[in-house]
Write a structure and sequence with these properties.
The protein is an alpha+beta fold. The chain is built from three helices and three strands, in the order αβαββα.
Length: about 190
């Protein structure tokens, strides 16, 4: 059980209400949180409590906890911190509208595909999908070789070398690897 001072609890709740979200590394030994001047353990325990009551939703990824305030959590924190209803978390505030993007087709062309200087659009195959893979007349031919199957003249390892074995070796030992690349013993 962790005893958390009211000052720390209020600081964490104020930050959470102001931002609407909070993230913390899952490190109980960290002396303080990355953004709040409170021990990280206190932040973890307070938000764990809020999550169990349904006031925040919790996501965990790569040793980081992410908490998002729910509507019930906003009401609870507003009551706990004695805040008026006009004050809302940053996640609920409307952002200022950005200037509109140009409406043309981009890259110096209008919507009909003409250059902005009045000329027609160039269509000489630039960025057209090129066919990939072998030509239509290509026929694969497999003649054996130094693969894992067969021996000697039939393909595979040379005649003087033993193929891979998974069992114990005839000359003793533990059988790891089966003596790959070694000549057979002549005993």
């Amino acid at each position: 059980m962790v005893l958390i001072p009211k000052k720390n609890k209020k600081t964490v709740y104020q930050y959470l209400f102001k931002e609407g979200v909070l993230c913390a590394k899952k490190d109980v030994f960290a002396p303080k949180h990355q953004e709040i001047d409170v021990p990280n353990l206190h932040v973890l325990m307070l938000l764990k409590s809020l999550a169990s009551r349904g006031y925040v939703t919790e996501k965990f990824s790569w040793l980081w906890n992410y908490w998002f305030l729910t509507n019930e959590g906003i009401e609870y924190l507003r009551e706990y911190l004695h805040l008026p209803t006009e004050i809302v978390p940053a996640t609920l505030k409307k952002q200022a509208s950005r200037p509109a993007r140009p409406t043309g087709a981009g890259y110096g062309r209008d919507r009909e595909g003409r250059d902005r200087d009045g000329g027609e659009r160039r269509d000489d195959g630039y960025r057209r999908a090129k066919p990939t893979g072998p030509d239509a007349g290509f026929k694969a031919e497999f003649r054996g070789g130094f693969g894992r199957g067969g021996r000697g003249a039939e393909g595979g390892a040379p005649a003087g070398e033993r193929p891979f074995r998974s069992g114990p070796r005839p000359e003793g030992g533990r059988g790891f690897g089966g003596g790959r690349g070694r000549p057979q013993s002549s005993a």
